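Hey, quick one: can you model this chain's 3D structure?
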Amino acid sequence: MLRKTFNLIAFVLIVGFIEGGFAQNGYSQNFDNFTVHHSVFSSTVLSAEIAEQYKLIRSKDRVFINIAVIPNNQTIGGVEAVISGTAANLMQQQKTLEFHKITETGTTYYLASLRHTDREVFHFLINVDPPGPEGPYQLKFTKELYVNP
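Sure thing. Here's the predicted structure for all 149 residues.
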């Protein structure tokens, strides 16, 4: 179990850096005492074993949206927060994102899944309410999604 936990944590962190480096290329945003990191990655890069363990659906036309809220005085280890959001395509078809909390070995992050067509562009609006008096905050970003062959 510990190995599976480590595998998912390592995977999510690696995907974040592959996506362009969380902080270096705009995949994070600072709000008061927190930094919100986000990444979007194909569900097919998860192993079947990990997907089954966390009851995640893998498909060539599905991505995961990963959100981690990290206090500015920490370098790793997300904290619990209330996360909600939507994704709207260019036709203004809006989908509500259902985030699921994943807590492992001292860190918490949130995953939501989204089905899409090839080269579909989505505008994401993520609401983040961290612990304490700060927030809530809104995170906005746009991503073009591709169907894996």
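One thing worth noting: The first strand starts at residue 28 and ends at 31.
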